Predict the structure.
Amino acid sequence: MFEATELNAQHARTEKLYRILFGLMAVLLILPVITILTVLVVRGGPAISFEFLFSEPINGMTEGGIFPALVGTIWLVSVALVASVPIGVAAAIYLSEYAPKNWLTRAINLAIINLAGVPSIVHALFGVGAFVLFFNFGTSILAASLTLAIMTLPVVIVATRESLQAVPQAFREACWSMGATRWQTIRHVVLPNSVSGILTGVILEVSRTAGETAPIMFTGATLFLPFLPETVFDQTMALSLHLFTVSTQVPNVPEEVQYGTALVLIGLVLSMNAVSIGVRTYLRGKKKW
Amino acid sequence: MVGTPAAADVKLDVKNLAIHYGDTCALRDTSFQIRKNEIFGIIGPANSGKTSFLRAINRMDMFDDNMRIDGEILLDGTEVRNWRNVYALRRRVGVVFPLPVGLPLSIYDNVALSPRLAGTRKKADLDVIVERCLTRAALWDEVKDRLNSLGSLLSGGQQQRLTIARALSQQPDLLLLDEFSIAVDPVTTMRIEDVLKELREEMTIILVTNLVQQARRLADRTAFFLTGECVEVAETEDLFTGAVSDQRTSDYVEGRFG
């Protein structure tokens, strides 16, 4: 009565086939990651030393370290965060919690999607026009960071809005029916339960900001600057641009320096991601409902 | 027929109330009065306009662009849409939802939230309110040793009593219960029903339920809603003894449909 029919056997074979097919595609994903990391560690690893990280490039960038670029990237990312996180989180709160369903809201949503789709080189040209020239910040950390901020705003907004939307509507209604205002509801119930998602979005933004080259090339980053920036109105070196420079613009740079720079950049981004995953796991570990 | 009570005894006066969502009519041309300190039952099958009626009382239509209310709802003689402070109105109206909503806060904070929002800051005052409300909701003994654990992780029945404690912390004079026993076991349901009978001394209770027998156990008077129409309002016992004017009411009460 329960023995397998020919049809059952056929279903089982198809099941196996699809499982293998999808599994292969998933495994395929980690191949490039492993390859990139292996190549970088093997060829760039030997370059990493205290001196490489904490000294200036010398002899036309063919020797010495990457310290000004490392510091510059940290400057650029920090200023970009200070500019974009408050704006992005506030905008997401408005869109998720306050915005009525009307043409203005639809227009804002459309703008966010379009902003996310604009190529980074176009952002760079916008940054030159708006921040370098119109606001007269000159080529500076400020202009470059603001350009990066605008480029990554959609990341922050979308991540924040999604984590706000993940808080069940029933919680809001319960809070409203107690006589809470919208802001009290957001402050006491919605925000505390979406912090982990917002943090994830912010750290995702950090890794994107650190890696971008085009938007900072014309707005604030320079190929070579033998001293550290002191204010946001100074120019600076940056890891991503430095990598571009030593790989393509300067002849006879030892391969070790090129791969070493790439390794430091990707190490910075990956460690940010690791922090992000850690924070998220910690916050989600405390199950709330 | 039910006699018209004196104006001073009327808690909620509903006049020609109609509720629409877009073009869909949820409740049409409904008029009745709810007296002070009575348990007023509302029975009827799904999509009868019961929940919409409750949402209209505490102005939840403000959060739903689609919801339109015509006619009048007078709470203690004042039309709810004319209350200058809608937040004060909502604090006077406690709400218990069909599915228990323990907010993802500690048990203590769940009950203390409303007093805090209303401006109570002193820990000692809050302690008193929390203990009193949890005791009244028949939950204190079960949770008094773990007031700092999350309210949203309690069992369904406990969460529903927590929701009632939270509603009581607003010191409401009108309590709206929307099918509160839908996710609660029978024993807890009976405990909550006992609580409600006591609360009647202090406040007016509107009990929406799809358990006809629950209305019979608790309600002084009961309204029967059917597909957006208030078919009739009668003394609860009359509904069950067949002394009703509309055939549909006795059909529903006796289980011939719905």
Observations:
- Residues 108 and 124 of chain B are 13 Å apart (CA to CA).
- Chain B has a mean pLDDT of 89.
